[in-house]
């Protein structure tokens, strides 16, 4: 093989090697996608506005591993302070704010004799698999379609946490179980401290129903 032919051969091999390396690289940052909300999302957003929920729309994004934020919003105000309110699908935001207003507020007055001034959450969007599961299936958190609630702060200064209150005083137990029962009527999936150790310190709410029969899963 002549020297010129050998040089051309090595050049071609080098080009293919670089192309092969590039094809294996995966982008690490979120990729923006079209941000025009769907018709269902527009109807849901109109419903939120009619209920005096203040929110801001967020850009659509997709992530490596299948995680995504599509038609999501950030709830700014709905009359009750809440922590860690990140990206949420509109149906999740609508049901959560209704649950807070029409279940949490009256239950606190009935069972605890005080007013809830803050709901503490552990967040919404999180690109991860289902906690405590061996299946590796993505959590609804990976689609901004879930929220975890950990505690409630009352006007009189008390803080009722799931970790301590679920088996706390009779009043705390009654309050938290009433909230669990109410949530089961609003969300597709509700998991609490009795479900497994991974949920000992919070309620998990999401809008996905059982894949088996399409009904709510409440534990």
Q: Can you give a write-up of this model?
A:
- Helices cover 34% and strands 22% of the residues.
- It is an alpha+beta fold and 219 residues long.
- The chain has a single domain, classed as Muramoyl-pentapeptide Carboxypeptidase, domain 2 (2-Layer Sandwich).
- The strands form 3 sheets. Strands 6, 8, 9, 10, 11, 12 and 13 form a 7-stranded mixed β-sheet that branches. Strands 1-3-4 form a 3-stranded antiparallel β-sheet, with no helix packed on it. A 3-stranded antiparallel β-sheet has the order 2-5-7.
- 29% of the residues are buried.
Q: What can be said about this structure in brief?
A:
This is Extensin family protein. With 219 residues, this protein is an alpha+beta fold.
Which key features would you list for this structure?
disordered N terminus; Muramoyl-pentapeptide Carboxypeptidase, domain 2; three-stranded antiparallel beta sheet; 5 helices; seven-stranded mixed beta sheet; 34% helix; 22% strand; 219 residues; alpha+beta
Strand content: 15-25%
Helix content: 25-40%
- Shape estimate: globular
Runs in which pLDDT lies below 50 for 5 or more consecutive residues are 1-28
Average pLDDT level: 84
- Report the structural category: alpha+beta
- Counting DSSP H or I runs of 4 or more residues, the number of helices is 5
Major sheet attributes? 7 strands, mixed
Q: What's the Cα radius of gyration?
A: 23 Å
Order of helices and strands: HEHEEEEEEHEEEHHEEE
CATH topology call: Muramoyl-pentapeptide Carboxypeptidase, domain 2
First-residue to last-residue Cα separation: 74 Å
CATH C-level category: Alpha Beta
Give the second-level CATH assignment, the architecture: 2-Layer Sandwich
InterPro entries: Extensin-like_C
Protein name: Extensin family protein
Organism: Sphingorhabdus wooponensis
Keywords: Signal
């Amino acid at each position: 093989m002549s020297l010129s032919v050998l040089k051309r051969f090595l050049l071609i091999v080098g080009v293919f090697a670089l192309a092969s390396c590039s094809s294996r690289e995966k982008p690490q940052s979120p990729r923006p996608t079209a941000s025009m909300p769907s018709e269902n999302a527009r109807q849901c957003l109109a419903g939120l506005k009619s209920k005096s929920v203040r929110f801001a729309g967020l850009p659509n994004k997709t992530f490596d591993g299948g995680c995504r934020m599509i038609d999501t919003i950030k709830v700014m105000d709905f009359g009750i302070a809440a922590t860690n309110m990140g990206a949420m699908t509109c149906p999740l935001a609508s049901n959560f704010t209704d649950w807070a207003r029409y279940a949490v507020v009256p239950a606190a007055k009935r069972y605890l004799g005080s007013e809830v001034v803050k709901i503490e959450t552990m967040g919404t969007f999180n690109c991860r698999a289902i906690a405590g599961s061996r299946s590796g299936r993505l959590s609804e958190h990976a689609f901004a379609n879930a929220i975890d609630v950990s505690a409630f702060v009352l006007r009189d200064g008390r803080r009722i946490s799931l970790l301590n209150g679920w088996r706390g005083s009779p009043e705390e137990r009654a309050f938290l179980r009433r909230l669990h029962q109410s949530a089961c009527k609003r969300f597709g999936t509700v998991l609490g401290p009795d479900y497994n150790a991974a949920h000992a310190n919070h309620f998990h709410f999401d809008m996905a129903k059982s894949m088996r029969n399409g009904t709510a899963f409440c534990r």
